[in-house]
Amino acid sequence: MLITDINVDISQLIALQRAAEHVALINKKSVQTARSGSYLSHIRGRGMDFDETRGYQAGDDIRFMDWRVMARSGRAHTKLFREERERPVFIVLDQSLSMRFGSRVTFKSVVAAQAAAILAWAAVHQGDRVGGVVFHDSDFHAIKPRSRKQGVLPLMQQIARLNNETPEFFSSQQLELVVAQLRRICYPGGLVFMISDFTGMTPIVERHMRNIAEHSEIIACHVSDPLERDAPLPGTYQVTNGNQLLRFDTHSKAFCDKYNQQFTLHFDEVKTILGRQRIPLISLSTQDDVATVLYHALLKVRGVKK
Question: Does CATH number 3.30.1360.40 belong to domain 10-26+85-301?
Fold first, then answer.
């Protein structure tokens, strides 16, 4: 398959609102029917209204244990909270140099931009507020959550701008700066989607994510390309970043093993870090139908059988 797209424009991102119609950011079974306009949620957050106490179930967050009821009844109970209808949804989108790569259909940066747009439109369809941070190595732009198109269109504009803009330099610390900024604008009870290849994952990033995860929900979307995961068939290949040309030979099994191991080690490290913070991980590839993958992955995250 040949690469057909290396950039996105605003019209393509707006057109993805139809693809987002069936992508649910929450489990619809948790929506209150008695009082329209509110969710019942297990989301970590302060400032949400207490709704009720029920018996503890496997998977419940122990930080919401109701110790007083447990002391009286002798059985474990957990608290449920009711959050606002217009939940703030934050899209953190990586458009850095490591994302400007692809060998199947499109670039990682394009798949990430498509995922960000679909998730943003899905939030709008649910009546949530949308904001986020879009960044590459030498620039980032933060957008505070706003309702409907007032929030999503500025986000789309920044996605298209940074996707089409070439970073002035490479920075291994940009993700740290971005997540630190997210801590300042992320409201309690929010839903955060982080879309990246997590090349800049460091202990500092993990610390910021841990702080955010204490009061908001984070879902990570890891973007990769098949050529990153597995060395190509035996042969001599060349790749370019537009300025430099690199040739490599995959006839050597030792080279291929080392090549494959490099991706596996990084991906396993990302999974381990996210796992420590109980952050779900969705995998996206440059050859995926993004809306379909997000639809099924979010159902799985929410524990919904389809």
Answer: no
Contact 126, 85 (CB under 8 A): no
Per-position b or e across 230-247, b if 16+ CB within 10 A of its CB: ebeeeeeeeeeeeeeeee
Task: Select from 113, 201, 213 the least CA-distant residue to 157.
Answer: 113
- Give the residue from 26, 219, 6 showing the smallest Cα distance to 132: 219
Which three-class secondary structure state does DSSP give residue 288?
coil
Count the residues in the chain. Answer: 306
d(Cα 72, Cα 243) in Å, to the nearest integer?
A: 70
pTM for the model stands at 0.79
Both structure tokens of 210: 């841990």
Which token pair is 132? 């986020």
Mean pLDDT across the stretch 131-157?
Answer: 90
CA 42 – CA 95 distance, rounded (Å): 31
Map out the domains of the chain as residue ranges: 10-26+85-301, 38-84
| % of the chain residues with pLDDT over 70 | 87
Poorest-pLDDT segment among 57-71, 141-155, 194-208: 57-71
- In 3-state terms, the chain is what percent helix, strand and coil (to 5)? 40, 25, 35
Evaluate if residue 32 carries a pLDDT over 70.
no
pLDDT of residue 242: 66
Which residues lie closer than 8 Å to 267 by C-beta, 6 or more apart?
A: 222, 224
The bridge status of strand 129-136 relative to strand 139-147 is: antiparallel
